Amino acid sequence: MRKPYWTRRTHLFRADEYICSACGRVSAKPWKTCPECGSIMKKVKVEASWVDEMEAVSAIVDDDW
């Protein structure tokens, strides 16, 4: 079995969120132990979802001059 970890989702206009790989709980900060399933966390992986959000903003604001 794989060791559980937090996946950090960064956003452009709101706070980061951390998702447990074992149970899927979303948390505001990376706890040492998941509050829902009790898994002991060792690391945090980063998912840059703000890039997709920035592309959407760029498409809205982009002018074709």
Molecular structure report:
This protein is α+β, with helices and mostly antiparallel strands. It has one domain (6-61). It has 1 helix and 4 strands, in the order ββββα. The longest helix has 12 residues, at 50-61. The radius of gyration is 15 Å and the shape is elongated. The model has no long low-confidence stretch (mean pLDDT 83).
Label the structural class: alpha+beta
Overall helicity: 10-25%
Largest sheet descriptor: 4 strands, mixed
- Amount of beta strand: 15-25%
Following the backbone from N to C, one meets helices and strands in this order, namely: EEEEH
How many separate domains make up the residues?
A: 1
Strand order of the largest sheet: 3-2-1-4
For the termini, the CA-CA separation is 55 Å
Question: What's the β-strand tally?
Answer: 4
- Overall average residue pLDDT: 83
* Shape type: elongated
Number of helices: 1
Radius of gyration: 15 Å
Query: Segments where pLDDT lies below 50 for 5+ residues?
Result: none
